[in-house]
Amino acid sequence: MLLAIETSCDDTAVALYDGQQVVTEILYRQEIHAAYGGVIPEWASREHEVRLPLAVHQALVQAHLSWKDLHAIAAAQGPGLIGSLQIGFTFARALAAAHRLPFLGIHHLQAHVASLELDDKPVVYPLLVLVATGGHTHLFRVVHPLEMELLGQTQDDAVGEAFDKIAAFLGLPYPGGPEIEKLAQQGHPSAVSFPIPRTSGAWDFSFSGLKTAFLHTRQRRADLPIEDLCASWQHTVFTYLVQKLIQAAQAHRISRIGLVGGVAANQYLRRLLSHAAAEAGLDLYLAPLRYCMDNAAMIAVAAWHRYLTGRYTPLTAVPFARG
Ligand code: KG4
Ligand code: ZN
Description:
Blueprint: E1 2-6, E2 11-17, E3 22-29, H1 41-63, E4 72-78, H2 82-98, E5 103-107, H3 108-114, E6 127-132, E7 137-144, E8 147-153, H4 159-169, H5 176-184, H6 208-220, H7 226-251, E9 256-260, H8 267-280, E10 283-286, H9 296-309
5'-O-[(R)-(carboxyoxy)(hydroxy)phosphoryl]adenosine (KG4) binds near residues 9 and 175.
């Protein structure tokens, strides 16, 4: 039985996992940032500080477990907001020391990739996985949950970040992804055409040009319904992501692809990728909807793999913001 903690950004999450299933989950999504167009780091840390001890207590009570039932404690180590990470990581490390349990510091992106294993469909490795979040757009060749090779990444904004920035520009609450998706559902995806970005690295991405193109179009064409603009922009962004992912799989001769991270919650993207994968004859793995956004269950799954190797994290380890 493993206790997992996730506090890399603005979600305070705790999970208990027995190696096969999630026994209990406590998730608190901080709402104080909604009106500010993005996460305010200082506030996020303070919220974690207040919520986390309660969430851990609540998880144990809900599962009818006590400290002696646990075999290890895991926490996100990075990348993320350093203040937020420090709260969860230090708390977990202290708990591990106090209860003399193995401690596991988990890479946040590795955990997102591990979220694929929370689906009923058993994951077969190797596969090519796109991690699309508010902080990352990374393409990995995943050989094993603990072994992944970075093939490409965004050269500027992350895809979720581009959604968040255009939402803030439109005066919509944070996180912007679901807000833009809602508007896009009412619009025509072919109303406006946007240029597909180019990058020097074959498997890299760029979203800042697309973000600027959205803002310019909004300013120049006040007559254009916002729903059409959002639908067309979203269509371009996702067509670009899907094409690259499929091409990368073909170039690397890998027949399995995966999509994880907050942006993977977007229904239009899930549909587009499902069609494209079927057409290309690729086997598709999608993170379950409830495990796309940050959560502790994904930390637990990655931690479980590490626990089995016996490679624990020393109690002198510290969290990292990047890397
Ligand atoms: O994985 P996540 O919870 O946190 C990070 O690790 O960053 O991802 C959050 C990101 C935000 O940028 C949010 O706007 C985006 O995921 N997102 C979406 C949708 N739901 C969340 N983007 C597009 N469509 C959505 N439905
Ligand atoms: Zn994340």
